[in-house]
Amino acid sequence: MSRYWPSRGFSPYDTLPADAPDVTDEDFSYITSQELDDPSLSVPVDAWHHPRTYRREREPEDDVLLIKNRSVTYPAHFPAYSIGDGKLLVMDVKERVALLMDLPDRVARKVKLLYKGKHLKDPSAPVREYGVKNKSELMAVVPEGEDGSSPSEGRL
């Protein structure tokens, strides 16, 4: 015998005998045909559930690409669904990178974009072809000494 359970023949898996509940006609409500036809006699909406809150239809959120360069993350916003629809091109992302990082045109042409180790080479290709999705992280590689921050930029 187990020392954890009483030895009176009870099992922890048995159910205890219970009396059936008393159900009367007052426990029910019946719907008449008049109530079905007359909406003013119907049950108020908030009697059964919370009143509906009507939400305004929100405009779709912008597509966002997270551009990383030297441990700095730049969020680049584009029109909604432009990535998934194939409308956002690699050259568009490069232009946005140049704006976000304040790069001169000559340096912006040399920026390399990488997504999961893949170089986004073709400037006229949609970024979707490289597997880029909304909220993806791209790495922008700016050639050394040409990120616009070097003091010798003006000299030749």
TrEMBL record:
InterPro entries: Ubiquitin-like_dom (IPR000626), Ubiquitin-like_domsf (IPR029071). Residues 1-21 are annotated as: Disordered. It comes from the Eukaryota. Residues 90-142 form the Ubiquitin-like domain. Gene3D superfamilies: Phosphatidylinositol 3-kinase Catalytic Subunit, Chain A, domain 1. This is Ubiquitin-like domain-containing protein. It comes from Bionectria ochroleuca (Gliocladium roseum). The lineage of its organism: Eukaryota, Fungi, Dikarya, Ascomycota, Pezizomycotina.
